[in-house]
Structure formats: structure tokens, C-alpha cells
Design goal:
- The chain is an alpha/beta fold.
- The chain has two domains: about 5-85 and about 350-450, Aspartate Aminotransferase, domain 1, CATH 3.90.1150; about 90-345, Aspartate Aminotransferase, domain 2, CATH 3.40.640.10.
- The chain contains 15 helices and 15 strands.
- The protein has helices at about 30-40, 75-80, 90-100, 110-125, 140-155, 170-175, 200-205, 210-225, 250-260, 280-285, 310-315, 330-345, 350-370, 400-410, 435-450, and strands at about 55-60, 60-65, 70-75, 130-135, 160, 195, 230-235, 265-270, 290-295, 305-310, 375-380, 385-390, 415, 415-420, 425.
- The strands form three sheets. Strands 4-10-9-8-7-5-6 form a seven-stranded mixed beta sheet, with helices on both faces. The chain has a four-stranded mixed beta sheet with strand order 1-2-3-13.
- Helix 3 (about 90-100) packs antiparallel against helix 12, helix 8 runs parallel beside helix 9 and helix 14 (about 400-410) crosses helix 15.
- The longest helix is centred in the last third of the chain and has 22 residues, at about 350-370.
- The structure holds ligand PLZ.
């Protein structure tokens, strides 16, 4: 056997893949098992995986494996392929660009697509103020740069992040991330001048938005002080932390306090961005205009790209040469981003996210009515989650959550878990999934839950 001995007749991905759940072997099938054995021998064990399959094609709402199984995709590679995997416009743009040139380094010889992505981001992010953007490779790198920019602009150093927040796996972003295991444990010491404030978590704290904000602001004022604080960074909806939607008025009050205290408000929209929540950005759903916004994931249909976009005077505070990186704004990724943003806008994907959300919420709420182990169903647009609890005590039930997720994958539905307590199943389907497939996936979730 050679390294290229993968499935014969590998199908092409994209929306023309048959949109069906099809199990022809148990999961993992024999070819997938071979790959997993090679993975175990060759890849560092710190790199895990959720679905034990060898992916060979994906598109619409399915992922096809090397054994010929077709799984329903409710994860989009963690909210990345929102336009649909191998979207035809993305494929075409990437193929054209890769045949032209693959890299010059934007800091050496600029090219048009980088500027076009910056223009598009400045246009589609919330707020009518003058904006500028800079491009990077990953979400973590965008967050790192947003903090650098805020520090330079304010001349201050401290950064406040929130309980349940997730911002990445680099040193500064690990410091900003709340959860120790698996993200931080054993990887310290972490970057200094990072402080944590309590979130609004309506299901668990029962506080109104303004009350939760007052609690956070009081801690920020007493433990950090506005005079020392460069930036507050928050995900409008916590992603890895459990799809926690803050109570009405929470974010607005935090933004108001930042404005009054010369603190840069950074919205980390890396998971919530690009039509996912029923608007191009979740900030719109909460009526806030962040000073800076970090984006990645859904920006480029699966190619690695990230950005910081924000008020021109803040973005321009940095000396020339202070921002950059060899690959930031790679031309192939930029071509994919232009095609993806075009698809979000021309295919009405934000409205589609809301429709998907209606289906998910209706079915999950119906399940919840007869199953008290579902403590909460929440989310916006096609970013929906169910939080599992012990019905008596309300305590998080991580074991049940893991069992349900595992059973779904075995039955051909890729679902992801999340949450500080590991007790949340999150639904992040590609926005190109059809209602039939979505409903079939939810049938599988329902039977997995009934059996657990
Ligand atoms: N900010 C809000 O959701 C990435 C992490 C998966 P990168 N979330 C998925 C994992 O276990 O590593 C994320 C995010 C928010 C920042 C990031 C970081 O983005 O592109 O993974 O660096």
C-alpha cells in the first residue's frame, strides 16, 4: 500500500454531491481505520479529531468518507464552510488565482485582491464610520493583532476578556481564553496584563443584561481600572464556551462603558461572523458597533484567512511596518474570500441562516418539552445549541452530551460539542444544507438522545 492508495472513484465535492445520509460501513470503515492508524503513528497525539473518518469530499450539507459513507455535516469544520464546502465560486476563484501566482508577500509587492478584501470588510462590518482592515492567517493571529493595535492606540496595556471566552491557542490568546483543559493546561506561563470579567449567562445567572454588565464593570473598575485598560474583548455569542447568548442590553452597556472610558471594544466575531447568526455579523443582532472586529473561519470558504477591521484612526495608530507576516492575506485565500463574500451576499445566506435556526430551534424545543435533560435551547440564526443537565440538580451533564454526540456520529451525523462544562451540543450546519437533510439529522439526534 502506498500513501496515495485512497478511495477509488473519489467523488468531486461541492453542491452536486448527492445530498443524502448514506452508511455503507460502520463508522469508522476499513479505509478510515487505516488512515487513523497512520495518523496515530505519524501525527502528534495532541492533535485530536471528532469524527473518526477519512474525508474525501464535501459539499452542500454532507461530508463523504473514503469508505463511501455520506455523513450529514452539522459542524461546517467549526463554522468555516458556511457558504458550503467546495462552493463553485470559491473553487473557480482559487483555481484561477493559483494558476496566476501563489504568493508575493503583500509586504513586498502588493496585489489587488488583498485590497479588495479589505474594502469588502470595511463595507460589510457594522457601522458607517471610516474603517480600515489588515489581513492575517488564523483567528488567533487576528486577535493578537487586535490587541497590539488597541495597545498602540491607547498607550495602555491591560486587556479584559470574559468567563467562557475562547480566543485561540497562541500564548496571548491562551491567556485570553477561559478554559484550562484542553486549551491551556500545562502550557503556561501565559501573557501578562490579561484580566477576566464575569459574563452574562442567562440560563445560569438569571441576571438581566444591565445587571450582568454592572457586575462586570464594577469588577473591571476595581481590579483593573480604566486608566490601565487598553481593550475589552468579547465574542458576541461565546462559541467554544457554550453558545452563550448574553441577556439583552449586556453588550450595549459594556460598549457604552468602553466609549466613556477610552477603552477599545473588540468584538471577536471569528465564530459568529459571516451570515452565521442571521446577520452578516452578530454585533448587528445586538445593535452594537465594535471599535475593532476580528474575523476568520467563514471569511474564505475554508482557506486560511483572518482579519482585523475597525475605526480608521485606531487601525492607523500603528507605525508602518508594525503589522504584517509572511503569508497574511495570501492571494489564494483572498480570491476565496472575495468569492465567499459574494456568495453570502448574492445567495441571501443570512436569511437562510435564520430559516435553518427556526428548524433547529423548533425541533430542539419540542424535544426539550418531553426531556428535562435538555436544560436550555439557545442561539441566533444557524448557531444553535442545546445544554444538557441533570434534571434534578441542573448540574451540567458532560457524560450524556458526549454519549449523544458519539452516537450521532456513528449514525452518520457530524455534531460538535462545546461549553466550559462540556455539556453543550452545538449546531453549525453549512448554510447550504437543505431542510430535508437537516430534519433527518435532527431525527438522528432525537433517537441518540432517547437511547442515551
Ligand atoms: N476566536 C471566537 O471560535 C476558533 C477552535 C478550535 P483559529 N474556534 C475554534 C480548536 O479547538 O482549536 C476561534 C474562535 C474565536 C478565535 C478563534 C481562534 O481561531 O483560526 O483557530 O486560530
Amino acid at each position: 500500500m502506498t500513501a496515495v492508495d485512497t478511495a477509488v472513484n473519489t467523488p468531486l465535492g461541492g453542491p452536486n454531491l448527492p445530498q443524502e445520509r448514506r452508511l455503507v460501513t460502520s463508522i469508522p470503515g476499513p479505509r478510515s481505520q487505516q488512515l487513523l492508524a497512520r495518523k496515530a503513528a505519524a501525527v502528534a497525539s495532541g492533535v485530536g479529531h471528532t469524527a473518526p473518518i477519512e474525508a474525501v469530499a464535501a459539499g452542500g450539507g454532507v461530508v463523504v468518507d473514503a469508505d463511501g459513507n455520506s455523513l450529514i455535516d452539522l459542524g461546517s469544520g467549526i463554522a468555516v464552510t458556511s457558504v458550503g464546502n467546495a462552493h463553485p465560486k470559491v473553487v473557480e476563484a482559487v483555481q484561477a488565482q493559483v494558476a496566476q501566482f501563489t504568493h508575493t508577500c503583500f509586504m513586498i509587492s502588493p496585489y489587488e485582491s488583498y485590497v479588495a478584501v479589505a474594502e469588502a470588510l470595511n463595507r460589510i462590518t457594522p457601522g458607517a464610520h471610516a474603517k480600515k482592515s489588515a489581513l492575517f492567517n488564523s483567528g488567533a493571529e487576528a486577535v493578537e493583532n487586535a490587541v497590539k493595535i488597541a495597545r498602540k492606540f491607547t498607550g495602555k496595556q491591560a486587556v479584559v476578556a470574559f468567563d467562557h471566552g475562547y480566543h485561540g491557542r497562541t500564548n496571548l490568546t491562551m491567556a485570553l481564553t477561559a478554559k484550562s483543559m484542553p486549551y491551556k493546561s500545562g502550557f503556561g506561563p501565559f501573557a501578562s496584563e490579561v484580566y477576566r470579567a464575569p459574563l452574562s449567562y442567562p440560563f445560569r445567572d438569571g441576571l438581566s443584561g444591565p445587571d450582568a454588565a454592572a457586575r462586570a464593570i464594577s469588577i473591571i473598575e476595581k481590579q483593573v481600572g480604566a486608566d490601565n485598560l487598553a481593550a475589552v474583548i468579547i465574542e458576541p455569542i461565546q462559541g467554544e464556551g457554550g453558545f452563550i447568548v448574553p441577556a439583552d442590553g449586556f453588550l450595549n452597556a459594556i460598549v457604552g462603558w468602553c466609549r466613556a472610558n477610552d477603552v477599545v471594544f473588540i468584538a471577536d466575531e471569528i465564530q459568529t461572523g459571516f451570515a452565521r447568526t442571521g446577520a452578516m455579523f452578530a454585533s448587528e443582532r445586538f445593535g452594537i458597533e465594535p471599535d475593532l472586529i476580528t474575523t476568520a473561519k467563514g471569511i474564505a470558504g475554508g482557506l486560511p484567512l483572518a482579519a482585523v477591521t475597525g475605526r480608521a484612526e485606531i487601525m492607523d495608530a500603528t507605525h508602518t511596518g508594525g503589522l504584517g507576516g509572511t503569508y497574511g492575506g495570501n492571494p489564494v485565500a483572498c480570491a476565496a474570500a472575495i468569492a465567499s463574500i459574494d456568495a453570502y451576499e448574492s445567495e441571501g445566506l443570512a436569511a437562510r441562516a435564520d430559516e435553518i435556526g427556526e428548524v433547529l430551534k423548533a425541533r430542539l424545543t419540542e424535544l426539550q418539552a418531553s426531556d428535562p435533560r435538555i436544560g436550555d435551547v439557545r442561539g441566533l440564526g444557524a448557531m444553535i445549541a442545546a445544554e444538557f443537565v441533570d434534571p434534578e440538580s441542573g448540574a451540567p451533564d458532560a457524560a450524556l452530551t458526549a454519549a449523544v454526540a458519539k452516537a450521532c456520529i456513528a449514525e452518520g451525523v457530524i455534531v460538535l460539542t462545546c461549553g466550559t462544562y462540556g455539556n453543550v451540543i452545538r449546531f453549525l450546519p453549512p448554510l447550504t444544507i437543505g431542510d430535508d437533510l437537516l430534519n433527518e439529522a435532527l431525527d438522528v439526534v432525537a433517537s441518540a438522545l432517547a437511547a442515551a
